[in-house]
Amino acid sequence: MARPMVLTRPARREPGSIGARFAESARACGIRTSDGELQTWFEDRRRANLFSVDRIPLSGLQGWHEHRHTGNLVHETGRFFTVEGLSARTGPGPDDGWMQPIIHQPEIGVLGIVVKEFDGVLHLLMQAKMEPGNVGLVQLSPTVQATRSNYVGAHRGRGITHLEYFAEPGRARVLVDVLQSEQGSWFLHKRNRNMVVEALDEVPEHPDFRWLTLAQVHEMLRQDNRINMDARSVLSCIPFEGADDACDWDEYRETLRRGLRDDLPTRHRDADNLLWLTDIKARAELHQRLVPLRSVRGWHRDEDAIRHDEGRFFEVMAVNVRAENREVSAWTQPLIAPTGQGMAAFLARPVDGVLHLLVQAKVEAGVRDVAELAPTYQALPSNFADLPAHRRPRFENEVLNAPAATMRYDSAQSEEGGRFHHAINNYRVIDVGTGFPLDEPPGFRWMTPRQLMSLLTHSYYVNVQARSLLAGLQTTW
Amino acid sequence: MARPMVLTRPARREPGSIGARFAESARACGIRTSDGELQTWFEDRRRANLFSVDRIPLSGLQGWHEHRHTGNLVHETGRFFTVEGLSARTGPGPDDGWMQPIIHQPEIGVLGIVVKEFDGVLHLLMQAKMEPGNVGLVQLSPTVQATRSNYVGAHRGRGITHLEYFAEPGRARVLVDVLQSEQGSWFLHKRNRNMVVEALDEVPEHPDFRWLTLAQVHEMLRQDNRINMDARSVLSCIPFEGADDACDWDEYRETLRRGLRDDLPTRHRDADNLLWLTDIKARAELHQRLVPLRSVRGWHRDEDAIRHDEGRFFEVMAVNVRAENREVSAWTQPLIAPTGQGMAAFLARPVDGVLHLLVQAKVEAGVRDVAELAPTYQALPSNFADLPAHRRPRFENEVLNAPAATMRYDSAQSEEGGRFHHAINNYRVIDVGTGFPLDEPPGFRWMTPRQLMSLLTHSYYVNVQARSLLAGLQTTW
Lengths: 477, 477
Fold this sequence. Notes:
Two copies of one chain form a homodimer.
Chain A: E1 6-7, H1 18-25, H2 35-48, E2 51-56, E3 64-66, E4 73-75, E5 82-89, E6 97-104, E7 109-118, E8 121-130, E9 138-141, E10 144-146, H3 148-151, H4 164-167, E11 172-181, E12 187-188, E13 191-199, E14 209-212, H5 214-221, H6 229-236, H7 251-259, E15 265-266, H8 270-283, E16 287-291, E17 299-301, E18 306-308, E19 314-323, E20 330-338, E21 342-351, E22 354-363, E23 371-374, E24 377-379, H9 396-400, E25 407-414, E26 424-431, E27 444-447, H10 449-455, H11 464-474
Parallel strand pairs in A: 6-12, 7-13, 21-26
Antiparallel strand pairs in A: 1-15, 2-19, 3-4, 5-6, 5-16, 7-8, 7-10, 8-9, 8-14, 11-13, 17-18, 18-19, 19-20, 21-22, 21-24, 22-23, 22-27, 25-26
Helix pairs in contact in A: 6-11
């Protein structure tokens, strides 16, 4: 391809920068927790936390009821979240509109990781936390996952371990603090605060928490269902930099290292990527309106779940959770359970030696502003299995049938276990190589990992699946 | 004050950059249109366009009706906009919630200015356009104001002069293209596409359009009610730079010039401003829900308008518009009419010789994401006249009683005349000088004009009143 590359901006690498310190942590053995201790502790937490999660009929929900007029699923306290109906429309035609159940949770929570240097190396304080929808139930989570009512008001922080580092001024230095969206297919306008703070004093020990280097977190993230969605989202927002001093690397790592730098040529200028996205948002209509859950056409309610009439997409089901070591020792709640396993993948290739990812601007029912930047492919393949090829998502063949040798990252991860039941996505970064066409179908664009990461200082550019993949990609360098 | 200043980033000034080219245009006499011709043409347009706008009873609206179930004001075609009810809540307390009428218009329109060089100087193609709610009716507008249905689909561009430069690829080079919000008190989640494009070929002449230098536009913007809101919004998004080679300037202009540069110390780093805003958004709750207009408490409908029970805020009224030189020669429509004249002002002062503005993170009923950056003071003073001092907006005294000599910018401007009737704000930039305290009450922060302008490459950071003031500020250098 003969199109010119453009140089975005001059180099500005600082050895003591936050990005460089995290890059150092990504190469460091555990000082506070050895790899062996980590494995033992994690398995021990999974065993020690004897939770049981059992599916129950919708009518077995306690504290939750169907709202009299709307049929919405609401909690008697008005807290947590509601399941309502959404009417969405992407155009004037008869096939451009649909209705679906959606989770409505306008509160902003905190997903926060405390970091601290030990022997000059940043460590992340990770929590072993149970969430009823997680595969394996206990996964590594951010230091804190808190709702807004936890961190504001008179009782802030009480009862949530380490929340003071996020709620009280002067306890920590804020390194990352940005609102990011969550699943646009299942949530209406949902977002959380993604934070990383550096503790300024001693942090008390607690059996559910361990200090890990970024290298150790990365190793866990290469395994299936170990690092929860909230942690992956926060990790993606860290201003991670590739190191300069690498040697004996293979060619892929060299292109990735270059793809993380901000002083090398990119296919498109950063500013032009924003113009491109504005154009897509302005042309692709998305009208959203909450409607009574009872009025949602194409879905029905039976004893066990609210389901799509053709069995597609997802169902709203209910579970009973018993947690033997908690004050609240049992509760019931609704969860969303997708009808199949999902796939989220970036096709990647070097362009003049710099790794680029094929990014999709994706419209989803519940996004805040029409479209966000998403993986090349993001879908439940089973939703499309009976459709002709031209109606299936682009690049499906390249993603589903990728040769093992081209998969730089490939793992199964659970989506938010507090809202979704066994919502597993296979996350893949597939290096398609320089032979792959640089063409960009409408809605697709080649961008470097650094270009996507620099957008993560702002809200609602990069969707949660793309963020999970960026966190995964960082494990491969 | 002893707090340290921080240096944000190295200089990167490029002589041929877009910002530098607009700075050049801001000093250039009109080449295509002399100042005298401009005045003659503008007055002629005001005279030639014999529109009459008359208030009518709400029941006199034609094509508009009250929706049977909701009482919402809707057009029979489903086009244009609707007036609905909004239930807003900023906290759990009884005084934290309110209801109000609100304009709902989810479509994204284009506000676009075509620019072109004549004799090496950029000129802006401005339109003399009538809008029924404008003071003076005809004001200078962007080249194009178009709805989404105008610029997508089979008939794109037809009937709207010069729309092809925005709708057809290859006709122009895109310099600016970003979605920006509009009045959060009166619109729910409204935004438009702010564009500046440079024409690549000859642009046909048209009696309603003139090529003006930025200097000429600035001169009009220093007068009352000459430049419409859409034009002010687009002007604020231009990456305007201060010139380097100024001489015999007064001290204020020198501090402003320095406040437009990106290589000088600022009170806060750009990245820290974003962290500050995230914190505010996460702590200041805002829950929004559309409700039937009929169910809005605290408002009532009479023959002439929908009004607040205490006569505050605004009313929804109706007008009959007769436009003698149009295909559609008459129409009726609802408009929102505020109950008094508004005020939007930035307090400004140099900090170490660099002009800073006191920016407010303001929560408004209809904003897309809790809060946006707003002027120091933005209110209808009459809404607060009978309240005790501690319940009135901050800095009211400094703004309303500012000495004339401190006002660097002071003009009355109309808000969007297609939706608002004589909605006039006094826009002021008040130079309070180095004696003014640098304290920052909660929700306020000193930022340079350049810091605000750099956020205008992204959406929904800077609200429309602050953008009008930034456009006004640029006229003062």
